[in-house]
């Protein structure tokens, strides 16, 4: 971009009040400048042609991606000239220095949303398609048949990553430590939950074998959500878990976390996060959270219905097989027919027919079993994956609230102790009063942070839900296809 000086300079005192109101609405909160991305969105709002917008940009000074206050005022004047059908040039603008024209951009308070929107290709947005996310990796978690250990037996899993072309062996405790360090490093991102380590007390409806199989499936969903996450997938922790073949992966994971630390301690946007918050963040957070809760509850019920349908298919397969076996038993009955009935009895022919019919029921049983497996693997499992994702969003919301509350309770406690120490030291009366003011100020800061910072992050929920709802559409279509095949 070039800067062309003009004979008459714009001064802050000579600009219309509207110019200052626009500046206040869109400038950065951390410093007295306007991001160039925000300025571009402002230009787009004018609906001027691209060549005219290009001329305006050419005459506005931009340094390191920012416009200062006077550069913005100059741009507003050029926009006003262009909207009047005139050539937006510095030379023409010299004639309007004494009374700068007013551009038509709407109410300044409505322009503040331009500042809140994150720039394109920013790390706060996910620009990848679902297909790209799914293609990042596909991880298989298989159960090792025998249990390891001399005294305390445990189950071991084989974890196979298609991305890294390697197979490693992990225990549940390895997954547990991996989950722990993920939460520490990515405290403000969605981290899927782990399944329980042991069978819950009072749950008597499933066997140990069924519990272990269910846990294996849940661990597979967990590691695939992590391995396909746009940020987790490129992190050293994930690579270590999927590739390290040494004897102590837990120590290796903790060492890797110590090297990197909390993501937001070093992230380049951590100090500017509030720039991307909309003015109505509290309302958006509440709306998003309620939306997630409703969707989660509905899909939880859908998953339960799908599970019951899959279970009925498997039970139907068992019943058909037993039905066929009974027919086979009848057909194989070698009992002799009484002499008085042997001449007119058709039992022999009927017995052969029953035996032949039992083979058909065996085929039907096999198809019903396949149907049950397809419903379980292609429908129920994908619904469970989506539920895991939804639950991780809900956990993130709770983690934010509890985290902010805990930190500020600690601050209040610390300054409360300071207050008591100062009171006991018989200092001047003004000092305890100042501590009272300080404590009051901390409470005010807490209220602001609790309403804003605690809610940062979940605003992206709806965007990601749209992606995964597209994924779910395939699940529901699969269910419809399976049922069509089943009843055809």
UniProtKB/TrEMBL annotation:
PROSITE patterns: PX. It is a peripheral membrane protein. GO terms for molecular function: phosphatidylinositol binding. One of its GO terms (biological process) is intracellular protein transport. It is found in: Membrane. It comes from the Eukaryota. This is Sorting nexin 8a. The lineage of its organism: Eukaryota, Metazoa, Chordata, Craniata, Vertebrata.
